[in-house]
Structures are given as structure tokens and as C-alpha cells.
Request: fold
Amino acid sequence: MSQSVTIHYTPSQHDYATVLRLFFWQRTSTKISLVFLVIAFGLVAYMILSKGTSPTIFELVWLLLPPLFMIYIIFIQPSRLARQASQNERLITEATWEVSEAGLQISSRFDTTHMDWVSFKKLVTAKDYYLLLRSTNNNAFRFLPRRAFSSAEEELFLELVGKYITRG
Reply:
């Protein structure tokens, strides 16, 4: 017996900003960059404290890089991209997701897209959203706000997705 669930929702600018923050945080490249910047920050702070003189411009730049990187990743970039998304009518129109054993079909008044389960590598579960990460493009994902589900729909969605992709 084939199971399926249908979900309707309209994404907002806030949705895009939030899921972009989640997406950036879960990326390995973001974490690696942050680790290097924190190490550099620690080394520069140690050098400044150990020499006992005023920091040079170079040292000040390295002290500011980690916090500026965090501000960029958490606030600036997601907000900028979300503003762009909210100006694209195709991205903020109501979408219908049909999730079944055959894959995922997303329909709007503009078009319909079918994706097989092999095109996804991971489901990221957050407090308010689900992110389906693409397997062929590490910079691509689909998202669903959890508010779009009834509890029964959400259970069936997780059951179907769990059969085909890993949850993280």
C-alpha cells in the first residue's frame, strides 16, 4: 500500500532568513572556517597579552574577524538573501508538497517539480523547520515549516522520509 501526505504552505521572508541561518550553521565549511578564525583569534589575543603593548592594526583585524564572520553568517547574508527571495513571486507563492514513496512533488501556480528520494542526502530537523539537503548540490536544499503540518501529517512525513534519507 502506497502512503502519501500532502502539505500546503506559503513561505515568507522570515522563513527564508531562518532556514538560511540553519543551513549555513549545519555546513561543514562554516564550522571549519569558524574553528580557524577562533584559533587565530586566540593566538593573536595571546600575542597581544604576552607582549604587553598596544595591538597593531594587523592584530586588531584578526581580533575582529571571528565576530564579524559570525555577524555576517547569522544576520547579514541570510537577511540579504531572504529579501531577494521575498521579491521573487515564484518563491513566496503557496506551495503544495506531495510526499510519497515515489519521491517529492512540489507544485505551485507556476510549475510542478518532481524529485526522487535519491536527490536528497539528509533531513535536518530544527525546532520550526525541516530542511531536505540535496545530494547533487551541497548549496541546495528544500524546506518545510513545521507549522504546515497537523501532527498526523508530520508523523507520516517523517516515516516516509525516514525510509529513504538519513535524519540529522
Remarks:
- The chain has two domains: 4-11+91-167, 16-86.
- Residues 10 and 94 are 4 Å apart (CA to CA).
- Residues 57-86 form the longest helix (30 residues).
